[in-house]
């Protein structure tokens, strides 16, 4: 006869057996689904690349000059891969060949021996190399190179039809050497464009992530904060600048946050910086993936900077991490001044391959607290003010900064 204790042990054993059986069944179903997905993807892959395989077979079997084909095959595959990825029309998803990938890794790790003019360059729609942004206090800035300047020649070599990496190879060289650039600067129309040569001295540059200046306007104290590069220490440096200003002036009435001429770098730090402007547990940004769970990035710190009236200055080169900051603040309470931003709301991952090539591809997109994504669109400013480069060069007057001061005065009133 079975007593109560034995019945209790049997019921526990039955429950454990049913639990194990359920886990096994669940695992089997998950494995079956995975295999089904893999088989479907394999079949789609076979169908998608059938034409490529047919062309490859015809060339391998019937092309006249087999020696040329054999010697060109690796290069053909590399160009085919690059063209395949380019077909996405995603400017941030790129297949990098071995030499391009090595160059990128050297630049990111600062292992390259050469010096640079410290301007970000890109290809424009007319296939010319164009300056996208100029790092503040850099050789390029000292030479008065400006965003949207076209570089037509480096010394006596034309850059038309050259890739960005080829242009970079021509511009960079040893520290303290001079490079002469033929520049075309846009005027009101093509006939009024200016073309001239600019000598730039290559150099290594140490750029402060955050700088500040205490300004006075109508008996009010303004803390002007300029972020040049987002690095892993930017938030702590910004807070240090605020503390130093408070020790000097004892009181701050307004703040101006300048995010102009900046792009990319350290998205995690951008989110961390926003913590100090928002109450704890407030969503400051969102990450959305195709294959992974979406993430809401919440403030986990006190909001000691929320008490200050704030204006953000941005421009068409304010991108990525900077746009995360600008859009979150704009949606909350801070007006954004100047022109529309760059419009990069996507994040890339890099997959390296055994032959030292790599694929840089978009893996997720970020959204604002109000669920807005500005990828290849942009943030629309509250007040649009075009940059007056002539006034800045002649009189050192920053017209956007002056408008920012005026807007702060309105907020105070």
How would you explain this protein's 3D organization?
With 413 residues, the protein is an alpha+beta fold. It is 39% helix and 23% strand. It has eleven helices and 16 strands. It has helices spanning 4-48, 50-62, 66-86, 98-109, 139-142, 164-171, 234-249, 267-274, 321-332, 389-395, 399-412, and strands at residues 94-96, 119-123, 129-134, 150-154, 157-158, 178-185, 194-201, 210-217, 220-227, 254-258, 283-289, 295-298, 310-314, 336-338, 346-352, 358-367. The strands form three sheets. Strands 2, 3, 4, 5, 6 and 7 form a six-stranded antiparallel β-sheet that branches. A hairpin with a 2-residue loop joins strand 4 and strand 5. It is flat and about 80 Å long. The protein starts with a helix and ends with a helix.
Helix and strand topology:
Layout lengths: L3 H45 L1 H13 L3 H21 L7 E3 L1 H12 L9 E5 L5 E6 L4 H4 L7 E5 L2 E2 L5 H8 L6 E8 L8 E8 L8 E8 L2 E8 L6 H16 L4 E5 L8 H8 L8 E7 L5 E4 L11 E5 L6 H12 L3 E3 L7 E7 L5 E10 L21 H7 L3 H14 L1
Parallel strand pairs: 9-10, 10-13, 13-14
Antiparallel strand pairs: 1-16, 2-3, 3-4, 4-5, 4-6, 6-7, 8-9, 11-12, 11-16, 15-16
Helix pairs in contact: 7-8, 8-9
């Amino acid at each position: 006869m079975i007593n109560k204790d034995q019945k209790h042990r049997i019921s526990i054993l039955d429950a454990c057996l049913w639990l194990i059986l359920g886990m096994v069944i669940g695992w089997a179903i998950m494995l079956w689904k995975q295999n089904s997905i893999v088989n479907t993807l394999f079949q789609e892959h076979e169908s998608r690349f059938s034409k490529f395989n047919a062309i490859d077979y015809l060339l391998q079997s019937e092309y006249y000059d087999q020696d040329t084909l054999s010697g060109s095959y690796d290069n053909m595959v590399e160009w085919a891969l690059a063209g395949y990825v380019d077909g996405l029309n995603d400017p941030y998803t790129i297949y990098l060949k071995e030499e391009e990938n090595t160059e990128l890794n050297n630049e990111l790790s600062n292992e390259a021996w050469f010096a640079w003019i410290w301007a970000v360059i890109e290809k424009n729609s007319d296939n010319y190399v164009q300056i996208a942004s100029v790092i503040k206090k850099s050789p390029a800035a000292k030479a008065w190179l400006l965003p949207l300047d076209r570089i037509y020649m480096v010394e006596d070599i034309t850059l038309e039809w050259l890739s960005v990496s080829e242009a970079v190879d021509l511009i960079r060289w040893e520290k303290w050497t001079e490079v002469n650039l033929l520049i075309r600067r846009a005027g009101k129309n093509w006939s009024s464009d200016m073309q001239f040569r600019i000598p730039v001295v290559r150099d290594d540059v140490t750029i402060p992530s955050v700088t500040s200046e205490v300004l006075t306007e109508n008996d009010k104290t303004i803390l002007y904060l300029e972020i040049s590069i987002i690095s892993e220490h930017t938030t702590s440096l910004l807070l240090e600048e605020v503390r130093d200003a408070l020790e000097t002036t004892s009181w701050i009435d307004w703040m101006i946050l300048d995010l102009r001429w900046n792009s990319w770098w350290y998205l995690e730090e951008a989110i961390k910086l926003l913590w100090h402007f928002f109450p704890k547990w407030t969503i400051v940004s969102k990450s959305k993936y195709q294959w992974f769970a979406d993430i809401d990035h919440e403030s986990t710190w006190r909001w000691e900077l929320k008490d200050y009236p704030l204006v953000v200055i941005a421009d068409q080169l304010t991108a990525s991490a900077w746009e995360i900051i600008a859009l979150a603040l704009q949606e909350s309470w801070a007006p954004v001044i100047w022109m529309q931003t760059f419009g990069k709301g996507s994040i890339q991952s890099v997959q390296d391959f055994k032959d030292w090539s790599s694929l840089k591809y978009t893996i997720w997109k970020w959204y604002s607290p109000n669920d807005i994504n500005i990828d290849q669109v942009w943030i629309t400013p509250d007040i649009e003010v075009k940059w007056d480069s002539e006034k800045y060069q002649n009189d050192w007057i920053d017209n956007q900064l002056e408008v920012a001061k005026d807007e702060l005065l309105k907020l105070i009133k």
